[in-house]
Amino acid sequence: MRIRFTRVSGAAAGAVVIAVFALAVIQTAGQATRTPRTADGKPNLNGIWQVTTTANWDLLAHSVRPAVAQPGVYDNHPVLAAPVVALGAAGLVPPGPGVVEGNEIPYKPEAAARKRDNAEHWLDRDPEVRCYMPGIPRAMYMPYPFQITQGTNKIQMVFAYANASRTIYLGAAPAPPADMWMGHSVGRWEGNTLVVDVSDFNDRTWLSRSGDFHSDALHLVERFTPITPDALRYEVTVEDPNVFTRPWKMNMVLYRQLEDNAALIDYRCVELVEETFLGHLRKNQLVKHWEGDTIVLDVTRRTPNGDKRYER
């Protein structure tokens, strides 16, 4: 068998590259036009979605580090602290490129100090640790799936974590609810983009495990834009004049789960973590001592310190 090779000129090779690139652009543009539609012509957002970022650990760009740290042998190399040392690698924060535009959260000076203090006491203070409602926007980028059910006058989002949910009202909306953990969401369509105005929060949720927080003056504008049939660009502008010097923005991609057996399964964690925040009230405490192959831990509880911010 003879195989014949043909010499291709530089101009011809360049033409081939241009043709392939043009085809890729056409295919990408075609994906947007093939976005699934509902009966009323809007992009079909129905399905189970999830992010792949590390935003729940830290919104800013970050390297790997201990979730709870203590000074190590070297000043610039902290190690796992006692509460998580038995977790080993599972007690680390995974690295990530960040999701904040400009990689800066514009905290006021006093708020920045509180954020740092929150980060140092993450294990005691983060509402996620106690299985509280995650709030918006954090529920959108926790590492757990959520389901969108889309109607003509409202969109329902149900989150696996803590059985949380939110309703996005399209058009006329009722008054804000008394329970303001997840805020009050009113949406509208701008072409293919779902724009959601979210307000009426309490101040009891965090934005990440790194101590990022907000006040009850939090106001969000979310934008959900299809970029492929199974991916949404999620952008959110954050405004809180009590905590930040100016509005700021983060963005990421939500991916639709395509597995044949994709289903939203409740992550009902409250029954499993009640020892975390109620264990000190037991007359006969359950968690006192634990032994593994390489470590022994003795637990000494102390009552809350009276600071109302942390008695949640």
Question: What do these coordinates show?
Answer:
The chain has five helices and 15 strands. It has 312 residues and is an alpha+beta fold. Among the domains are: 171 residues, Calycin beta-barrel core domain (Lipocalin, Beta Barrel), CATH 2.40.128.20; 34 residues, no CATH class. The strands form four sheets. The protein has a nine-stranded mixed β-barrel with strand order 1-6-7-8-9-10-11-12-13. The longest helix has 24 residues. The C terminus is likely disordered.
Which descriptors apply to this entry?
globular, Lipocalin, 9-stranded mixed beta barrel, two-stranded antiparallel ribbon, alpha+beta, disordered C terminus, 312 residues, 5 helices
Main sheet summary? 9 strands, mixed, barrel
Q: Can you identify the CATH class of the domain at 47-60 and 100-256? A: Mainly Beta
Helix share bin:
10-25%
Unreliable segments (pLDDT under 50, ≥5 consecutive)?
Answer: 19-33, 306-312
CATH homologous superfamily title of the domain at 47-60 and 100-256: Calycin beta-barrel core domain
Short description:
The protein has 312 residues and is an alpha+beta fold.
Write the layout of secondary structure elements.
Blueprint: H1 10-33, E1 47-50, E2 65-66, E3 69-70, E4 79-80, E5 92-93, H2 109-120, H3 122-125, H4 138-141, E6 146-150, E7 154-159, E8 165-170, E9 184-190, E10 193-199, E11 219-228, E12 231-239, E13 248-256, H5 270-278, E14 289-291, E15 296-298
Parallel strand pairs: 8-9
Antiparallel strand pairs: 1-6, 1-13, 2-5, 3-4, 6-7, 7-8, 9-10, 10-11, 11-12, 12-13, 14-15
